[in-house]
Amino acid sequence: MVVIVVIGVFLGSFMDAIAGGGGIVTVPTYLLAGLPAHLALGTNKLSSSIGTSVSTARYVKNGCVDWKLGIPSIALALIGAHFGTRLQLLVPEVYLQYLLLVVLPVVAFITLRQRQLREEKGLIDPKKQMAIVLTAALVVGAYDGFYGPGTGTFLLLIFCNLGKMDVRTASGNMKLVNLSSNVGALATSIAAGQVFFLLGFIGAAASITGHYLGAGLTIKNGSKIVRPVILVVLVLLTAKIVYSLVTGT
User: Fold this and answer.
1) How far apart are CA 46 and CA 150, in angstroms?
2) Domains of the chain: total
3) What is the mean pLDDT of each run of 10 residues along the chain (249 residues)?
4) Is this structure's pTM higher than 0.90?
5) Which of 47, 70, 181, 217 could disulfide-pair with 81, CB 3.0 to 4.6 Å?
6) What DSSP line would sit under the chain, residue for residue?
């Protein structure tokens, strides 16, 4: 169990720090290690929350966070995640999976058309940027509460393409939003007794390493490393959804 978790969580966390979407790898890792579904999800939130805090701190240290946008984004992400989770209780997630099968190829096409993500901040009215970023935090936060996989990737693409943020700042603000939704979900899982703390802390050590290295590569290389990883995340997410629909799991 430990070997599987250390390898899988490191790889997923490394990917997550760069372009989001690490849960596509880390959740199946805990399932492969033998944990039941709810316990795997809760334990994954423990390790991912700790690891995400490390990559977030590294972005903050290097000045890659716009706090005027980041602080209200955190609040709206928490609100969105709360209502997204409540909606999950009412609507089967299979409908969202079908919708994503239409959305993901479009997102991939847009990403492929871009030679690189924005390295410098674009020209945009501050009020418009604020509206775009906060709306994304609320809506994608709700998606994270409802379903989750690819949350960081969607935020990153919206912040760069619509919010005109440079890729490093977009990555830093994305991690702030993602960290808040992780912590909220972790608190719920702990309250429900669905966290395997020993294995979660072992996974956290691997997560810290992956997030630290991944954040460092993004800060150093920008879109050269982020764009390819985004495409990998989109392919993995599409494969996951197709597999879930075919197998009914």
Assistant:
1) 18
2) 1
3) 93 90 87 87 90 94 94 92 77 76 79 74 93 94 80 91 93 92 83 91 96 92 85 86 81
4) no
5) 181
6) -HHHHHHHHHHHHHHHHHHS-THHHHHHHHHHTT--HHHHHHHHHHHHHHHHHHHHHHHHHTT---HHHHHHHHHHHHHHHHHHHHHHTTS-THHHHHHHHHHHHHHHHHHHH-SS--SSPPP--HHHHHHHHHHHHHHHHHHHHHT-TTHHHHHHHHHHHTS---HHHHHHHHHHHHHHHHHHHHHHHHHTT---HHHHHHHHHHHHHHHHHHHHHHHHHTHHHHHHHHHHHHHHHHHHHHHHHHHT-
Domain enclosing residue 64, as ranges: 2-247
Tokens representing residue 4 in the block: 């599987």
Angle between helices 197-221 and 167-191 (to 10 degrees): 170
Distance CA 51, CA 204 (A): 6
State how far the Cα of 240 lies from the Cα of 37, in Å rounded to an integer: 15
Q: Give Cα separations from 190 to 25, 184, 232 (angstroms).
A: 22, 10, 31
Q: Are 222 and 119 in contact (CB under 8 A)?
A: yes
